[in-house]
Amino acid sequence: MKNIITWVTLVILGVALFYAAWAIPFGSPFTSDMDDYFIAHGQEQTAANNIVTSIVFDYRGFDTLGEACVLFTAVIGVGVLLRLRKKEEDYEYE
Amino acid sequence: MSMSKIIRVTADLLFPFIVIFGFYIVLHGHLTPGGGFQGGAVIATGFILLFAAHRIDDVTCIFGKKLFQNFEAFGLFLFIGTALVAIALGYTFFMNFLANSGGLFGQTVSFGINPGSLNTAGVIPILNLAVGMEVLGGLSIIIIYMTKAIQWQEDLE
Question: What's the rounded Cα separation, in Å, for the pair B113 and B22?
Answer without folding.
Answer: 25
